[in-house]
């Protein structure tokens, strides 16, 4: 995306279970920051590159070996790294729909085929970019399930909902593990007490915390 760099370059990642809204809100965040004068670059995982295409094909077929996926995702991130660094070098904000943190949650989840040890996943992703800001979209699994049903058609409720609940618990474990590794981790509620929050309200909350972090860093270096 266009525009001139403004202030501190930063790598911003949005994470959450399937149906949390990471794709929607990464795009909205980039659009809103552009309107405020920031230069942004938008990334997604898996990427649209050669390795990302292979990952997408495997994911569409399933079931799949999580150890294999861990390695493929790590390779995809390594290929993305130069693009992210190039964005940051231009003084822009790199905004990503998911990161290696997704692998820590998904590829280690015990109910998926051949899960990988979380320590091993961390090691194979040692060269992946570390976010400056991690935004975790906290959406209740039942809400996420309903969203996925609207988007991709109906699924077997007990199986799919059980997986989403398990992944939500896995993310809680992962978020504790990465404390101190990432400068800023913020949780934004996408639903409350079984009710979806409006997209615009969630988007506004994300923008608020990101701007607060950016302005703090800008002023601290002034």
Automatic annotation (TrEMBL):
EC code(s) of this entry: 2.7.4.9
Domain of life: Archaea
Gene3D superfamilies (alphabetical): P-loop containing nucleotide triphosphate hydrolases
Domain Thymidylate kinase-like intervals: 14-176
Keywords: ATP-binding, Kinase, Nucleotide biosynthesis, Nucleotide-binding, Transferase
Reaction catalyzed: dTMP + ATP = dTDP + ADP
Enzyme class: transferase
Keyword Nucleotide-binding: yes
One Pfam family, short name: Thymidylate_kin
Keyword Kinase attributed: yes
PANTHER family: THYMIDYLATE KINASE, UMP-CMP KINASE 2, MITOCHONDRIAL
Family statement drawn from the similarity comment of this UniProt entry: Belongs to the thymidylate kinase family.
HAMAP family: Thymidylate_kinase (MF_00165)
Protein name as catalogued: Probable thymidylate kinase
Species of origin: Pyrodictium abyssi
